[in-house]
Specification:
- The complex is a heterodimer of chains A (83) and B (229).
- Chain A has 83 residues and is of the alpha+beta class.
- Chain A has a single domain, classed as 2-Layer Sandwich (Mth169, Chain: A), CATH 3.30.1280.
- In chain A, 34% of the residues lie in helices and 35% in strands.
- Chain A has two helices and three strands; from the N terminus they run E-H-E-H-E.
- Chain A has a three-stranded antiparallel beta sheet, covered by helices on one side.
- Chain B is α/β, with parallel strands linked by helices and 229 residues long.
- Chain B has a single domain, classed as Class I glutamine amidotransferase (GATase) domain (Rossmann fold).
- Chain B is built from five helices and eleven strands.
- In chain B, the strands form two sheets. In chain B, strands 2-1-3-4-11-10-9-6-7 form a nine-stranded mixed beta sheet. Chain B has a two-stranded antiparallel ribbon with strand order 5-8.
- The chains are: A alpha+beta (83), B alpha/beta (229).
- At the A-B interface, helix 1 and helix 2 of A face loops of B.
């Protein structure tokens, strides 16, 4: 068995209003920077044991669908690296 | 049939005692708590309430961790087999959408604030076990207290499921002013306002009491399984 580091980035779907992103953007602008399309995402990281990278990706996908993300609200991206 | 109510208690639930008090001492309904680790509760209760609070600290997002609690496993069967009625208040509503027992989701209020105040609601449907003592179109006042109460249901037409809408002002940006919805079977109601906080004259209003009395009224008209046999 090998160990893999999994990183799941969970974001609000682009069509959904992100009030936190809006507030962060306002703060950035207050510092004098000109930015747009600011969105806040969340990253969950964990280590998982699996025989192959594909297997680790499969496990990470199941975990993400079952609890880390809500299909009504989120899109997600999973990154898996062997340790 | 007699109403026998159970109140789910998760780590972080904080409206469980208020709800118990209103059920027992105001609505005259027999009630007790169901702890989140319990698995065999469904035969004992014909009314269960998922009360308000911050189950599991709202970690990940409200309701996300509560939905995989042992107590929830039986809830799916309970709803499917129509063994009783399920009311989710505030965090309870969030848990019900997370479980998929109600459509859509609840996200951060548009203004990012925790809003704690009385709001006016319109009763859109009184043909449900939860609202039969209200009139259709009646305007009532109930308190809300939430940061994640904006209801959305992208791509789903839920017009026929809306039971309560915010009247006058939409406090959180909810789609179609939605404050409470019911499922197709009419045995699960989720609502962001807190009816248990406005069930006694001494607290300023009794507008919420009729939710609990409606369920009691509806169940009293049902024959028990024994009587049917």
């Amino acid at each position: 068995m090998k160990e893999f580091k999994v990183s799941v980035k969970i974001s609000l779907k682009p069509e959904l209003f992100d009030p936190e992103g809006k507030t962060v953007e306002r703060a950035i602008k207050r510092l004098g920077f000109s930015v747009k399309n600011t969105r806040v995402s969340r990253i969950v990281e964990f280590t998982v044991e699996a025989s192959t990278k594909e297997e680790a990706e499969g496990i990470a996908g199941k975990i993400t669908n079952k609890i880390l993300s809500n299909p009504v609200l989120h899109t997600y991206a999973i990154k898996v690296e062997e340790l | 049939m007699k109403t026998r109510a159970g109140i789910f208690v998760f780590p972080g639930t904080n409206c469980d005692h208020d709800t118990l008090h209103v059920l027992k001492n105001v609505a005259g309904i027999e009630a007790d708590f169901i702890f989140h680790t319990e698995r065999n509760w469904s035969k004992k209760y014909n009314f269960v309430i998922l009360p308000g609070g911050f189950s599991y600290g709202d970690y990940l997002r409200p309701g996300a961790i509560a939905k995989i609690s042992p107590v929830i496993e039986e809830l799916h069967v309970y709803v499917e087999k129509e063994l009783g009625f399920v009311l989710g208040i505030c965090n309870g509503f969030q848990i019900l959408t997370e479980t998929g027992l109600l459509p859509g989701a609840l996200i951060q209020n548009d203004n990012l604030k925790f809003i704690c105040k009385n709001v006016k609601l319109e009763v859109k449907r009184n043909d449900t076990p939860f609202t039969n003592l209200y009139s259709k179109g009646e305007i009532v006042e109930m308190p809300i207290a939430h940061r994640d109460g904006k209801y959305i249901s992208p791509g789903i037409n839920i017009d026929s499921l809306v039971v309560f809408t915010y009247h006058g002002e939409n406090p959180n940006g909810s789609f179609h002013n939605i404050a409470g919805i019911i499922n197709e079977k009419k045995n699960v109601l989720g609502m962001m306002p807190h009816p248990e906080r406005c069930a006694e004259e001494i607290l300023g209003s009794t507008d919420g009491l009729k939710i609990f009395l409606s369920v009691k009224n509806y169940i009293s008209g049902l024959k028990s399984r024994k009587e049917e046999m």
